[in-house]
Amino acid sequence: MSDYRIKEHPVLDIPPTQEVTFFWEGREMKGQEGEMISAALFANGVRTFSYHQKDDAPLGLFCANGQCGQCTVIVNGRPLKACMTPLRSNMRIEPLRGLPVLSAEEESGTFHEIEDVETDVLIIGGGPAGLTAAIELGKAGVRTLLIDDKDKLGGKLVLQTHKFFGSVEDSFAGTRGFEIGRFLEKEVRSLSSVEIWLDTAAIAVYSDKKVGVLKNNETYVLVTPRIILNATGAREKSLPFPGNTLPGVYGAGAFQTLVNRDLVKASDKLFIVGGGNVGLIAGYHALQAGIDVVGLIEAQKDVGGYRVHKDKLVRMGVPVYTRHTVVSANGDKAVESVTVASVDDSFRVVPGTEKTFSCDTLLIAVGLDPVNEFHLQALDFGMESYLAGDAEEIAEASAAMFSGKIKGLEITGKLKKESKKIPAEWTKKMEILKSRPGRDVEPQTSGHNQGVYPVFNCGQEIPCNPCTSVCPKNAIYIDPENMMGVPVFLEDKGCIGCMQCVAICPGLAVTLVDFRKESDMPTVTLPYEFGDKGLNAGDKAFVTDKAGNPLGEYEVISLRKAGKVSNTYLVQFRMPAEEAKKAAGLIIQEDHTVTEPLREYIPEIRDDEIVCRCERVTAGEIRELIRKGVRDINQLKAITRAGMGACGGKTCQSIILRLMREEGADVSEITRDTLRPLFFDTPLRYFAGIKDGESHE
């Protein structure tokens, strides 16, 4: 089979690995010791992991986060989640067909006493909020246990290869997400009062105020905390449409996990649904991984994410279609194409506007829901529980870091019975970082054909100002009390052409124009984050303006690595003066056939959209019961099994609520789903004190 490994990446290092042999459906394949089985299968071109017991529909990876069961495979005779199970030598892996069969083998073994651990604070989640909270608690000497279900700290920071927004001084602006994760981890590990358990999932909270966790994915432990801090992040929303469960339809988090953590080229041709920051950033990550991005659609009049994210995609050759929705994912056993269409002001499809694009992957990025059910259950049992980061409110990771700091200080004061004053600037900065994009503002440009000066292409108010911090002449100004303004070049302070503002800008939205050598053909410096392999001095490249319109093909006169900003390059051209002042980016994706629609519209032949992926319950089945007066999601579950599958309703409940609203149900009449006692499907042997891999009776 094909090898879909990423051999070179412009930002990420390719670590040394140990190759092992495993078997998929009896066929020998090669993988990397310790990587997730899902990554090994994708690297070998396998996209279908199982077949649903209800209708034999092919299923593939969906969340890549252990929260659903769609990637379940049979490993050495046992059903396990491919995205959470490390690969070992000589594993024999089969697709799950129908319901798994439990082993009938008689085994003997011993039971272990269940360990009960006490701590002042239990932090669930080692992402940006959990880490900054742990730092504050650790500095105060508070006994803290930080757990995370992954093998690395950082949460989604581990998957972020782009530079962050915000400010340099207090939210690492201009630094890549995975590097921020390393900085925070180093600080947490230096604190003696903070204990860290990785590969450890919180699976239950009990009425006796204990929390059940699966430590190291093998040992069940009870934790008795005085206070819980839930920094559990968010999960991606799903979207019902025909073909939405085909292998090749998955969320941005799963895609970023495969590409940026597992270094697997998860797709050849990608189409993105959703124009928030998550979808826009995923498109950029795809281009960096050598994946063609066919297009991106957004149902609203404009993208909801930062304009600079959209602009850099457009400049690189990715079409963005606003006022469009997905009609269907098409294919027999996996995604082969996607059909989209324009929508009217009521978001209904406009007949006759359908377009079908060839692609093998459909990335769904239509929003996030807080993962807060653990917190709600803890409150029901009278436990003291706090929320931080996306578990409290969906925002950018930079805001989550401030949220964690604030909650860490609050909890410290609570435990020490001291009045801990939250610094006013923390709260103010957090609210600014949570801000939605503001007004469109045309940046001021010198316009002179002399000297050297920066040109700003970030004409939207967003919380970002690293360019002001790195300018040695203090010649770039943004209101320090707001940070939401667009940068202004102060001509009286001058520019020395150091190019630091070009290198650090997270939106790749700063260009430097230098007339000092030649006024008719100035030198233009642009940021470039695709390594030094694809572009060299003497090569030609298409330069575009801010809107992605080609300005012409120009010869590269220089390509060099920016000093302090990791893996950012500065590429220089000589261009006519008026073109130079418009230059904003380079076309990366030059093959226009990738982005062109097919000649014919492919009609969808499926009966209805799947709402509950686990039990394959359709929207039609749900609507029929709603129209009969059902307003209790528990009743819907009992009749249809919607929400009764491996994910525990995490994916379908928000869709069911939306269907109820669409059918005119009064929100006050709706009874929400009762939370399950366990938040992850967990083998019973763990509760009996048997470690994974041990024999047992």
Question: What portion of residues is helical?
Answer: 10-25%
- Going by CATH, the architecture of the largest domain would be 3-Layer(bba) Sandwich
Write down the overall geometry.
globular
Calculate the mean pLDDT score and round it: 90
Instruction: Calculate the terminal CA-CA distance, rounded to whole Å.
Output: 41 Å
CATH level-1 class of the largest domain: Alpha Beta
- The number of distinct structural domains comes to 4
Largest sheet: 7 strands, mixed
CATH topology of the largest domain: FAD/NAD(P)-binding domain
Query: What is the CATH H-level superfamily of the largest domain?
Result: FAD/NAD(P)-binding domain
Going by helix content, strand content and strand pairing, the class is: alpha/beta
**Cα Rg:** 26 Å
Per-chain topology:
Elements: E1 19-24, E2 27-32, H1 37-43, E3 50-51, E4 58-59, E5 72-75, E6 78-81, E7 92-97, E8 115-124, H2 128-139, E9 144-147, H3 168-171, H4 177-189, E10 194-197, E11 201-205, E12 211-215, E13 219-230, E14 234-236, E15 249-251, H5 252-261, E16 269-273, H6 277-288, E17 292-298, H7 307-315, E18 320-322, E19 324-330, E20 337-342, E21 355-358, E22 361-364, E23 368-370, H8 373-380, E24 385-387, H9 397-416, H10 424-433, E25 452-456, H11 466-470, E26 476-477, E27 488-489, H12 500-504, E28 510-514, E29 523-528, E30 540-544, E31 550-561, E32 569-574, H13 577-580, E33 585-586, E34 610-612, E35 617-618, H14 619-627, H15 633-640, H16 653-662, H17 684-687
Parallel strand pairs: 1-7, 3-7, 8-9, 8-13, 9-10, 13-24, 15-22, 16-17, 16-22, 17-18
Antiparallel strand pairs: 1-2, 3-4, 5-6, 5-7, 11-12, 12-13, 14-23, 19-20, 20-21, 25-28, 26-27, 28-29, 29-32, 30-31, 30-33, 31-32, 34-35
Helix pairs in contact: 2-4, 2-9, 5-6, 6-7, 9-10
